């Protein structure tokens, strides 16, 4: 029996039940073999042997089925051994019986088969001494002879008791060693997980540093010629002002389209600069309810009445550790991305976007849900990467969500995305609560 078996009650029950059943089978088999070789035993001896084997059979069934606790079955097994064995010894000659010496084996057998419990060995030892006393008394053995027998048998039984106690200590030590091994493996696995996470974070930081340097250089190089183009377009627009001929009108439309393209390039340059140096200025806190309402109003203009943005805001939300302007920008970006994802649904459906907030132990959790088709599984891991976008060319730069996550991460918050089981996507923004300042003592 291993330490794992002693620690597992079900395994211990199965093992003890099997031990009792095997013992019952061996006793009944020995009875049959004895009667086959030596002839039929006398009725009292036969009934004692049947009682012995049947008692072990009942103990095995009781323990295996669960109606008898193993802790109770072990002491009972000692009595079940001693009583029939005493009857057999008394019937076959008392102290002169060839079976008399088997009494001393009972405590040893109990110590061997039930090493997890000292009670059964003690019960067997006491029952053995009592049986020796009864047999000696019936045979008229002097008390000196009984005392010698009792001392020897007690010594042998004590050896069994000590062996069982030693086994208990060894089993406990093995259990502790196994627990320490498991804890060491858990610590090793946790250390490896932390190392991999740190390595991934370091690689991500290095990559973002390189991207930031590239973005800063590109923004600087593009910004100067972009200013010349804007100035020239403004000059051409002034020159064409007042011209009403069809040719001039068409030319002004082309200039307007060109100006829109230049403004888009300028917006990309501004995004690149913000990504390269995303400072949060001096704002320290934002108010979720006000930011959600403002983002809802701004998104309504983008939806043009073709959808709705529903708010679920509990009262008295605490301020969060993100400036109001940046909080509105993040929420608006999430709303517009949700609206864009619904517009791509076939057949078309009006966007319905739910924006909710609730207070948590860490601060405030804001969620933006849409009724689109969700985010593809291969896109989810890359959703917040810089310059990654699933929008058609000319519609997205891939910097919006990257900037949002950067703003949130710099104040200790998190921004993640998941798909809803009922369909659509859910973006989750978690921000820490602004700590309340204790008033100065008067």
UniProtKB/TrEMBL annotation:
Enzyme Commission number: 2.7.13.3
UniProtKB keywords: ATP-binding, Coiled coil, Kinase, Membrane, Nucleotide-binding, Phosphoprotein, Transferase, Transmembrane, Transmembrane helix, Two-component regulatory system
Broad enzyme group: transferase
Segments traversing the membrane: 20-40, 46-69, 76-93, 122-140, 146-164
GO molecular function, one term: phosphorelay sensor kinase activity
Residue ranges of coiled coil: 168-208
Catalyses which reaction(s): ATP + protein L-histidine = ADP + protein N-phospho-L-histidine
Domain Histidine kinase: 217-435
Record carries keyword Transport: no
Name of this protein: histidine kinase
């Amino acid at each position: 029996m291993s330490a794992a078996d002693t620690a597992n009650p079900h395994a211990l029950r199965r093992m003890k039940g099997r031990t009792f059943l095997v013992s019952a089978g061996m006793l009944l088999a020995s009875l049959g073999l004895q009667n086959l070789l030596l002839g039929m035993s006398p009725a009292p001896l036969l009934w004692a042997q049947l009682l012995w084997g049947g008692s072990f059979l009942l103990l095995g069934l009781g323990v295996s089925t669960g109606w008898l606790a193993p802790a109770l079955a072990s002491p009972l097994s000692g009595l079940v051994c001693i009583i029939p064995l005493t009857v057999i010894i008394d019937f076959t000659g008392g102290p002169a019986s060839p079976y008399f010496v088997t009494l001393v084996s009972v405590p040893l057998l109990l110590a061997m088969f039930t090493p997890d419990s000292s009670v059964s060995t003690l019960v067997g030892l006491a029952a053995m001494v009592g049986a020796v006393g009864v047999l000696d008394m019936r045979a008229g053995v002097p008390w000196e002879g009984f005392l010698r027998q009792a001392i020897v048998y007690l010594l042998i039984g004590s050896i069994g008791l000590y062996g069982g106690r030693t086994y208990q200590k060894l089993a406990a030590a093995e259990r502790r060693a196994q627990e320490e091994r498991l804890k060491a493996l858990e610590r090793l696995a946790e250390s490896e997980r932390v190392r991999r996470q740190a390595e991934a974070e370091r690689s991500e930081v290095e990559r973002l540093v390189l991207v930031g340097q590239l973005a800063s250089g590109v923004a600087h190089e593009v910004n100067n010629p972009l200013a010349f183009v804007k100035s020239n377009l403004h000059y051409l627009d002034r020159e064409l002002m007042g011209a009403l001929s069809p040719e001039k009108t068409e030319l002004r439309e082309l200039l307007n389209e060109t100006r829109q393209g230049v403004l888009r390039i300028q917006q990309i340059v501004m995004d690149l600069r913000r990504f390269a140096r995303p400072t949060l200025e001096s704002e320290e806190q934002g108010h979720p309810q006000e930011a959600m309402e403002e983002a809802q109003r701004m998104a309504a203009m983008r939806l043009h009445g073709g959808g709705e943005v529903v708010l679920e805001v509990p009262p008295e939300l605490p301020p969060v550790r993100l400036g109001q302007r940046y909080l509105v920008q993040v929420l608006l970006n999430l709303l517009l991305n949700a609206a864009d994802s619904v517009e791509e649904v076939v057949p078309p459906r009006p966007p319905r976007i739910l924006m909710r907030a609730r207070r948590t132990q860490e601060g405030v959790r804001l969620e933006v849900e849409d009724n689109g088709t969700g985010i593809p599984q291969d896109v989810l891991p890359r959703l917040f990467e810089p310059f990654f976008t699933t929008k058609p060319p000319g519609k997205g730069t891939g910097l919006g969500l990257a900037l949002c996550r950067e703003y949130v991460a710099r104040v200790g918050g998190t921004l993640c995305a998941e798909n809803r089981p009922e369909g659509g996507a859910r973006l989750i923004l978690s921000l820490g609560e602004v700590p309340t300042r204790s008033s100065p003592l008067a």
